Amino acid sequence: MVGLTLPPYLLSRAIDDGLRAGSRPALAGWVAALLGVGVLNAWLAIMRHRMMTRVRLDAVFRSVRAVVAQATRLGAELPRRVTAGEVVTIGFGDVAVIASTLTITGPGVGAVLAFVVVAALLLSVAPLLAAVVLLGVPLLMLLVGPLLGRLQGAEAAYRERQGLLAGRFEDMVGGLRVLNGIGGKDVYAGRFRRGSQELREEGYRVGAVTSWIRALGVGLPALFLGAVTWLGARMAAEGSISVGELVAVYGYAAVLVVPVEFFIEGGYDLSRGLVAARRVIRFLALEPGFEDGGGAAAHGPEAPAVLRDPESGVEVVPGRLTALAGARPERSAAVVERLGRFTGSAATWGDVRLDEIGLTRVRRRLLVADHDADLFAGPLREVVGGARDREAEALDRALYAAVAQDIVRGLPGGLDARVEARGRNLSGGQRQRLRLARALLADPEVLLAVEPTSAVDAHTEAAMADRLRAARSGRTTLVTSTSPLVLDRADTVYYLVEGRVAAAGRHRELLDREPGYRRLVSRGAADDDPADLGTADDPADLGAANGPAGISTADGPADGPSVQPYEEGAR
């Protein structure tokens, strides 16, 4: 920026000392100096661009790393606190805006220094011109200031609505097959269309303010240049300054356009950057719902022990297959959330509260297998095997237990076939079986599985139930399900009403003595009949066991997505 002020000075000396005086050596010397300064400015421009690119990219990657680290830290809390669309907007859009804003720092300092240098040079020519510059530039900033404030408000509203719409779009894409099945695609598309129109209107508001800022960024410096040049020309006509000094004044005023434009553009970038930074900081300030355990009990029980959830009354006995059955899958899943320490509770493991055990140790010994856990993109071998290399024999056993060998045979390349993100190239039932295979391959001390067979046909479900019991023989396992094919294989079944144990026993025992349980597992009328329980109940709590009336939770002979009220996201 300061280098831009040198050519007008050298040009004025070449005119006054060389052209007017008729001195060829002086003219040649000043022209050579002018050429050298031009080369220097070109080199500085190249290095400035490289440095700004480095600053921008460094800021992008450091900010993305911070966002990803925070998302990992929040873990299962993330989908409860922030929508996926907002995370995407923050991780890409807001981070990019912040990185771009940081590039105004170097040129901003340069613009201030150039403004001071130009004022000093003009002071040596004419104090009046220097006074016009020193007073005029701050006045230009004051004229643009109110627009920058309006821009922050409009930009903040636009960003918020953009995050919400991105989340709605992801939900729609992820549930497109289910929406087709229940005839809700047009309804959801209509909502998205209205949301996008509202976002467009917010974009118009941002664009209107931005257009004024951009117009003033070009127009005000041009008017300022005209005023200074007119004043300098008047002084040259009066003989107060020389011809060379007039040329210098014009050059200084023209150079001053650059920092003035930058002040305006920098204010615009800073306004957008503050909006983006507030959103990122708000995300980084989120705290997990509970703190990690510690102290003497941090290691947990040494030997297998009973998992207890006092809130529901469920007890998971070591070495046994336990099942939870309730008309509301989300209530059963909530029990798993507490026993898996994904939500704070008074749950215990043996004689120790779960929240007093180190979280890392809980995760190593206890695995929650969600029915909607993510499948990441990559070879099928890695999708099932996870981070570690697995022996072929272990992979085969896990795939057999999950009745998933046909998936391997059906994909070109077998275990080396590529799975797309979230398993988009697989059916709902195939994804579910691969999730179960992945959980069984991990071979945790305690496995808590949420609806592991809800998206497959009855024949496959029966095979999965038999093989799951055999694969987990002697290991502690809890499943949530309302399928009689699964419940009949369990050692203990807990019948849940309003999230609490209403009865416990073997599947056939509960069929004989619990009418409500019998209706539940026969896929008829569901929950919590007051006549069966001897308690009052809200009619709004009555519903179908596996989804809304008329909607099947399995695909029949073909695999496909399940319809479940409980959607908590990946583990």
Structure description:
By secondary structure, the chain is α/β, with parallel strands linked by helices. 61% of the residues lie in helices and 8% in strands. The chain has helices at residues 6-19, 24-74, 78-81, 84-102, 105-125, 127-174, 176-182, 185-237, 243-284, 329-339, 359-365, 380-385, 392-401, 405-410, 428-442, 458-471, 484-487, 507-513, 515-521, 530-533; strands at residues 307-309, 314-316, 321-326, 348-349, 352-353, 366-369, 378-379, 418-419, 446-450, 476-480, 492-497, 500-505. The strands form three sheets. The chain has a six-stranded mixed sheet, with helices on both faces. Helix 4 runs antiparallel to helix 9 (243-284), helix 6 runs antiparallel to helix 8 and helix 6 (127-174) packs parallel to helix 9 (243-284). The longest helix is centred in the middle third of the chain and has 53 residues, at 185-237. The chain is elongated. Residues 524-571 have low confidence and may be disordered.
Describe the protein's topology:
Layout: H1 6-19, H2 24-74, H3 78-81, H4 84-102, H5 105-125, H6 127-174, H7 176-182, H8 185-237, H9 243-284, E1 307-309, E2 314-316, E3 321-326, H10 329-339, E4 348-349, E5 352-353, H11 359-365, E6 366-369, E7 378-379, H12 380-385, H13 392-401, H14 405-410, E8 418-419, H15 428-442, E9 446-450, H16 458-471, E10 476-480, H17 484-487, E11 492-497, E12 500-505, H18 507-513, H19 515-521, H20 530-533
Parallel strand pairs: 3-10, 3-11, 6-9, 9-10
Antiparallel strand pairs: 1-2, 1-4, 4-5, 7-8, 11-12
Helix pairs in contact: 1-2, 1-9, 2-4, 4-6, 4-9, 5-6, 5-9, 6-8, 6-9, 8-9, 13-15
